Amino acid sequence: MKGLQQTINNSSDKIQVRDLQLVTREAIGRMKEGEEEKTKTYSALIWTDKTIQKEHIAFLDNIKELKLDQKTPLRVLHRRPLALRCRIIHTMKSEYIDEHHFRLHLKTQAGTYIKEFVHGDFGRTKPNIGSLLNRTTDILELDVESVDIDWPPALEN
Known about the structure:
By secondary structure, the chain is α+β, with helices and mostly antiparallel strands. It has helices at about 1-10, 25-35, 55, 115-120, 130-135; strands at about 40-50, 65-70, 85-100, 100-110, 125, 135-150.
């Protein structure tokens, strides 16, 4: 495993692997149990129908531990059961781009549907960025910046 890890790490500067190891089904089960505690960090490019200025979005930076009610999104309803899930947006940081665009950096509870948090999914996610800004909003880009979970266990050297 160490050799494979070194081969991967030496082959590219775009990806790095650490603690490469075989894991048991039991260890995977423990990881899945930690889903609720896991957080994810995203960057989203957002469009607004009405013009915005920096001061229109600045208040988002002060919102902490925002509780959401999310019904199963329409886009996944064919493969997931209809349910109401409570999720948390831990932090947000806005970055003004122009009159109709801004970037939003979010740290969220795992399992949060980010696209739906931005556009509201026809009222199925409350609150949402559109309702907070009192504007129609949509998501143009979404990048996962990090998945924060301490897994797999670190290897002893």
